[in-house]
Amino acid sequence: MTAFFVMACAAQSACADISITNTDAVLTFNAKGFVASIRERATSRELLSQPGPMLTAKLADGRRAVSDGVAARADGRFVFKLSQDVGEAVFRIIPFEGGWSFTVDELDLPEAEYLVLCDLNVTCRQWRGRFASLISDSKSGVALRPYDLSLGAGLNGNRIHIAAACKADAVGKRFGLAGVPRARLARALQAMTIAAGVPVSFAGGAWSRDAEECRGSYLQPVLEYAATEDWIDLARRGCFSTIHFRYWMDTLGHYGAKTNLFPRGWTDLFAAADKIHAAGLRAGIHTLTGCISPQDPWVASDLNTNLLAWTTYTLAADLPQAEATELVVNEEPIQRHDTEFTYSGDGNAIRIGTEIVQYSGVRRTKPYAFTGLTRGAFGTRAAAHKSGAAAAYLQQRYLAFYPDPDSPLGDALADQIARFFHGGRFDQIYLDGAEGMGFVNRRDQDKMMRKILSRLHASPVVEASSWSSHNWWGHSRVGAWDSPCFDSKRFIDDHVRSVAWSREAEFLGAQMGWWSIRNACPHYRGLFADENEYFSSRVAGMDATMSVTGLNVNKKPLTFYRSNMFTVMGWYERFRLADAWAEGVREKMNAERAEFRLRQDAQGLWSLAPVTTVVQRVKGTVPGSGIWMADFAKAAFKPVGADARVEAFYAPGDFNAKNALVLFDPASEEGLSVSSASNVVFRTERAVDPERGAVLKMRAENRG
Questions:
Q1: Angstrom distance (rounded) from CA 18 to CA 11
Q2: Under 8 Å between Cβ of 288 and 299
Q3: pLDDT of 636
Q4: Contact yes or no for 377/349 (Cβ under 8 A)
Q5: What is the pLDDT of residues 196-226, one digit of tens each?
Q6: Does residue 369 sit in the same domain as residue 417?
Q7: What secondary structure letter does DSSP report for 225?
Q8: Cα–Cα distance between 64 and 158 in angstroms, integer?
Q9: CA pair distance 318, 353, nearest whole angstrom
Q10: How many domains in the chain?
Q11: What is the CA radius of gyration of the chain?
């Protein structure tokens, strides 16, 4: 049994210092009520660079008060007095393995505009993880994490703290602190997770880096049920452990399955997942966190009163059921208003009662109004509305609305996600689009994500597009980027550096997705085999997972070229998962710009050969550039073969070529027509550049 003890003075008496010890460290408060020390017991390393106040309050009257004394009570609680005699705070501090849990039991002080709790300056300086709320280096780590959603985590440089917006957000709320050697960090964070009482996934958070299910990579197909076996074969070829269903839903909200993919809806969706499981693979499912499509039945129901709003106005005049041309309001419209309903915009939908009205114009002078009305939008019913009625400008992003997470609609959405997740016995979930919900209040996003995860049984692998310290507990992997369109190798180098840092800073599994084996198109060049192998070797070198998008075997096999690239990717993945590399090989593969070829000979023996790359740029305007010789005399190894890749650049021709097509001449007035949105000020200015001659300068200012 682990023993914890407190060294303190008599009840309600001030003392020089108070220390609370756990398995790994000693936490000390000085006589001023500052956190003076976190010292590791095994190494005696001090983890704080200077004392920091246990409590700082910015009061409503403008005063600022900080800790100015501490005493231990007989009941085991601790009283921290504030300067200027403005009041005191009572904390309950309970040790756990590697850390301490804090509860703000009482706050006896005037109303505060802002509270900072446990303000620490940490000696570690190598990695700062805002998601993990962790500052660490190769030897130690200090994590300070909120348990309750009303508390926030702050990290700035080497300062880390807990914040609350007001007294109500702090009283009765809890947070945790851990300071341990890095080798003990996972165990301390696991103990903190249990102490926090948050949803636990043994494939997420403090368990993610050692979870075997987090090591496998996944495919992201738009899978048709009829082609399930073909996708299973492809996953096996690439040694992907998971097939992750993407773009499978007909609407966000009820999440019906697209019948062109799954003719019997959820029945076929679940049957496809069963086939994947029967093949020894795992199944994942994609969602857009909190998103509800405009065409979803909930939007046209009475539950639409639970949708989040950017802001709310009051009608300044009656709005009749029909023939209304304006929606007149008392308040000046905020700058956020869009006049179209677009993917990345804020939307143009206003809810009055259960009717949703769309507008195409905004009048920002009195009488304030929204014009160009479409009544009964998104299947709602047009109705008459009296002056003084509330008009909510609905929060929109990604062509979707969002529910109040504390409402019946928030519960219904979380229940529906859990229903299909459990129905297909899925092993992995991606919470995409989460950031769209948190634009007004980040807490809404955190609440919705926790509400969903609390309903999921077992221990799913979890990834998401947006994170905060509140959903780190269940998050499994971090680092995914979208795939490049040009200059893939340098993109990969940047991505590897970012993921390597994030894995240590955020103390999570590493994810090198979302990779795409692109075909060439008018918008970007295709991916070359050497670029794909460079990606595969770098992923294997850093022992990270990956995800691959953009492939399709629903109707026909992959092209020969893409199939070969995918097969090579699978070779590297097999070696990675089996940890079959010879000693020192991974370190060589993980070196920036180091290229390799993994091949099997006729006898079945595998070899990993380093590659030297020589690049020659052929320019039509440079005589002799098309003739060149690759000299490998100074190469670090003896060449055994050579390949050549010829690529035509995606670039305009010579600016001064005689056959150049003039699209627009900045020195001429002809051919210039300027238009912009009503809230965008667009200006042009002609000028002369010393090198390029006549140029046209353009400036656009978005005024909301």
A1: 12
A2: no
A3: 67
A4: yes
A5: 999 999 999 999 999 999 999 999 999 999 9
A6: no
A7: G
A8: 22
A9: 13
A10: 4
A11: 30
Asked if 483 contacts 549 with a C-beta cutoff of 8 angstroms, the reply is: yes
Is pLDDT above 80 for 618?
A: no
Give yes or no for residue 69 having a pLDDT over 90. Answer: yes
**Averaged pLDDT of the chain:** 91
pLDDT tens track for 107-116: 998 888 899 9
Residues 165 and 48 in one domain: yes
* 162 in any annotated domain: yes
- 382 and 241 co-located in one domain: no
388 CB neighbour count, 10 Å cutoff: 11
Instruction: Give 449-455 contacts, CB < 8 A, sequence gap 24+.
Output: 449/289, 450/149, 450/198, 450/199, 451/405, 451/410, 451/411, 451/414, 452/287, 452/289, 452/414, 452/417, 452/418, 453/199, 453/201, 454/199, 455/414, 455/415, 455/417, 455/418
Query: What proportion of the chain, given as a percentage, has pLDDT over 90?
Result: 76
pLDDT band at 14 (very low <50, low <70, confident <90, very high): very low
Q: Is 118 within 8 Å of 138 (Cβ atoms)?
A: no
CA 608 to chain centre: 35
What single-letter amino acid sits at 653?
A: G
Residue type at 663? L
**577 lies in some domain:** no
* 333 CB-near residues (< 8 Å, 6+ apart): 313, 362, 363, 364, 368, 370
Residues making up the chain, counted from first to last: 704
- pLDDT over 70 percentage in the chain: 93
DSSP 401: B
Distance CA 57, CA 166 (A): 9
Amino acid occupying residue 675: S
Closest CA to 484 of 524, 529, 541: 524
Q: Please answer whether residues 105 and 113 qualify as being in contact, where contact means their C-beta atoms are separated by less than 8 angstroms.
A: no
Closest CA to 544 of 566, 568, 571, 511: 511
Q: Which of 10, 2, 1, 197 is nearest to 101 (CA)?
A: 197
